[in-house]
Design a protein that fits this description.
- The structure is a single chain.
- With about 325 residues, the chain is of the alpha/beta class.
- The protein has a single domain, classed as Rossmann fold (3-Layer(aba) Sandwich), CATH 3.40.50.300.
- An eight-stranded mixed sheet has the order 6-7-8-3-9-10-12-11, sandwiched between helices. Strands 2-1-4-5 form a four-stranded antiparallel sheet, with helices on one face.
- Helix 6 runs parallel beside helix 7.
- The longest helix has 18 residues.
- About 40% of the residues are buried.
């Protein structure tokens, strides 16, 4: 496993924390000093992404993946910690200044992320509106971007509602790449489209990375998507990193009990047998267990697991948050 940062790292996430308050505190709550409760969406996460590589955030719904992605592009503000893009701190979108356009996101549902009243060309050109480019050049870049994702110029004048779901997702990708960003966050980019089209979108993303050198932070719950796309994988569980390493290591020799269970629960394309579902339910993100967050569901739980959260142990180049590897 490489150290936290290298000269090639484009994106560095350092001890990122994001807490969301639960409800509003009343005057009486303040008088009696009732503590504010929080959802621990992201809790002390440190990751890095090298140029032209793909880091996959893998985990179940509610693991904090999307929140971390939104923090990276500045749609949410960190509670504590730091995120850097090529050495420059990423702040909230309205404060990003010259970082604007260098971080883009493809959202899970293209229908809700594209303005239904705008033409496709205008949707794609949106990230360039505050640039210093002339109107004609912005239009040309938008059409070029549509061509790069396999959509013809004749679609530029249509509305998103006139396109298929697969075409809308390609428009969302075109919008993300039009400003030639340093990092693109892909939030479940294939989950809202038909299975027959998922491979086409993934192949498109791979081709764009090879030809234009894009760096991806890809969010998914599907180990098969991770297997196809990832250079590195960070497995997240209830806001924390459970396992982090090269894709071939995490997928080929998973070490954390949660990673093992997650991979076992995923359908295998070449197998007819039903996958084994994950047992148990995750605890509340508000009332988290004192120790390891996976302890209530872990078949290897020990007493110390219930008392303290394990740090990340280095095991053959992978980082694993599990006391089984405290040797």
């Amino acid at each position: 496993m490489r150290s936290l940062t290298t000269n090639q790292d484009v994106l560095v996430i350092s001890n990122a924390v994001k807490l969301f308050p639960v409800g509003k505190r009343s005057v009486w709550d303040r008088v009696i000093r009732k503590p504010q409760r929080f959802v621990h969406a992201v809790d002390d996460v440190s990751l890095h992404v090298a140029k032209a590589e793909t880091l996959v955030l893998l985990g179940e719904s509610g693991s904090g993946k999307t929140t971390l992605g939104r923090l990276v592009v500045g749609l949410e503000t960190l509670t504590s910690g730091r995120i850097d893009l090529e050495g420059e701190e990423v702040r909230h979108l309205k404060d990003n200044g010259k970082l604007r356009g260098r971080l883009q996101m493809v959202f899970q549902d293209p229908t809700s992320s594209l303005d239904p009243f705008m033409k496709v060309e205008d949707c794609v050109a949106e990230p360039l509106r505050k640039s210093k480019l002339e109107r004609e050049k912005i239009s040309a870049r938008a059409v070029e971007s549509l061509g790069n994702v396999g959509l013809g110029e004749k679609l530029a004048g249509k509305r998103p509602s006139e396109l298929s779901q697969g075409q809308r997702q390609r428009v969302a990708v075109a919008r993300a790449i039009v400003s030639k960003p340093d990092v693109i966050v892909l939030d479940e980019p294939t989950s809202s489209i038909d299975v027959s089209l998922q491979a086409q979108v993934l192949n498109l993303l791979v081709r764009l990375q090879k030809t234009q050198g894009f760096t991806y932070l890809l969010i998914t719950h599907d180990p098969n998507v991770a297997r196809y796309m990832a250079d590195n994988i960070a497995v997240m569980y209830l806001g924390k990193v459970a396992e982090y390493g090269r894709a071939e290591s995490v997928l080929g020799n998973p070490r954390h009990p949660y990673t093992q269970a997650l991979l076992a629960s995923a359908p295998k394309p070449d197998e007819l047998s039903l996958p084994k579902p994950l047992s148990g339910e995750p605890p509340s993100m508000v009332s988290l267990p004192k120790g390891c967050r996976f302890a209530p569901r872990c078949p290897f739980v020990m007493e110390r697991c219930k008392e303290s959260q394990p740090p990340l142990f280095d095991k053959d180049g992978s980082l694993v948050a599990c006391y089984l590897y405290d040797r």
